[in-house]
Amino acid sequence: MSEKLYIQAISETLSEELQRDEKVFMVGESLQGGSFGHTAGLVDVFGPERIMDTPLAETGVVGAGIGAALCGYRPIVDLMFADFMYVAGDEIFLKASQWRFMHGGKVQMPLTIMAAVGGGLMLANEHSQVPISQIMHKPGIKCVMPSTPYDVKGLLKSAIRENNPVFFFYHKALMMSSGEVPDEEYLIPLGLADVKREGTDVTVVAGGMMLHHSLAAAEALKDKVSLEIIDPRSYEPLDLDTILKSVEKTGRVLIVDEDTERCGFAGELGFQIMDKAFDSLDAPIKRVCSPNYPIPGGYLEAHYLPNPEKVAKAVMELMGK
Question: Which pLDDT score is estimated for 38?
């Protein structure tokens, strides 16, 4: 095991997959310099024919990835910010997601779309969203978001080798976080959640930066409440079985999601838990999400986003304290 930064795990995985399979290439915005540094230096090793820097033209970038995937390549499209995916909405939601279905399963779509998500850097609404719920709403697209360097490497390798379109969201506020990563190759199957902390009183489901906020809240409350914290890692497919097993043990559920509360992942997961594990619940399911309001820029952002204090407060309310 080696200690690595989140950003290092992304860069190393990209390099390893480019070396492993000559059909893998990257196309996207600011790749040769790298807005976040995760692709810096790749063009020097693999050349501009495999690390293709593009103009700010998401429709063309995703369209090129779709066409290449249909021709047998394994393109990795990097949109820089996830918020920019809406520009390529037709290509993503009506083409990439449905092509295999519309052709009776006779074609494959090995397309990986990478994009940075999340607030915390005061970049305002067009550069800070976490649009997981929109991806989940459209059948045919898989979606993952790693919270640790270990998960980065295992999930990104699986995404690149997957024969269906996968969104790989990396959280920009976690890029300089660190963690242990095995030296040998490994993959994390899509659709497998991870229990990051075992507990007995409350099941907390949280991913990305929200996982770290929840772990901080668990540490602050450790003398009062025992939290079991589950990182979904994969949102489509979703490992509901791991979550339900925890709910049967704790009887209480808190879902922490950085997206807005209305029509978000937290609401969908909460309903699925209620539908399949109602008799296990000892209290109503609670959510900690961002309010139904555009993400403000500047110092107001800190009041808008979920944080450890908000998580801890919701936990105590669940416990009736």
Answer: 92
CA dist., res. 263 & res. 133, Å (int) = 8
Q: Can you list the residues of the chain whose pLDDT is less than 70?
A: 34
| CA separation for the pair 264, 32 (Å, rounded) | 34
Per-residue tokens: 281: 């619940």
What is the model's pLDDT at position 207? 98
d(Cα 171, Cα 81) in Å, to the nearest integer? 10
Give CA–CA dist 112/26, Å, rounded. 9
Question: Other CB atoms closer than 10 Å to residue 36's CB: what's the count?
Answer: 18
Residue tagged 């540490």 (tokens): 219
* CA distances to 194, 202, 214, 282 from 198, in Å: 10, 10, 13, 19
Nearest to 209 by CA among 272, 297, 121, 83: 121
200 within 8 A of 249, measured Cβ to Cβ: yes
Contact (CB, 8 A) for 61 and 75: no
- Please check whether residue 205 is in contact with residue 289, taking contact to mean a CB–CB distance below 8 angstroms: no
Name the residues annotated as catalytic.
Answer: 127
In sequence order, the 6+-apart residues with CB closer than 8 A to the CB of 2 are 180, 181, 182, 183
Q: How far is CA 163 from CA 10, 136, 141, 232, in A?
A: 20, 18, 11, 21
Contact between 267 and 239 (Cβ < 8 Å): no
In the chain the first and final C-alpha atoms are separated, in Å, by 41
β-partners of residue 143 are 167, 236
Q: What is the pLDDT of residue 297?
A: 85
273 with 243: CB under 8 angstroms? yes
* pLDDT at position 32: 82
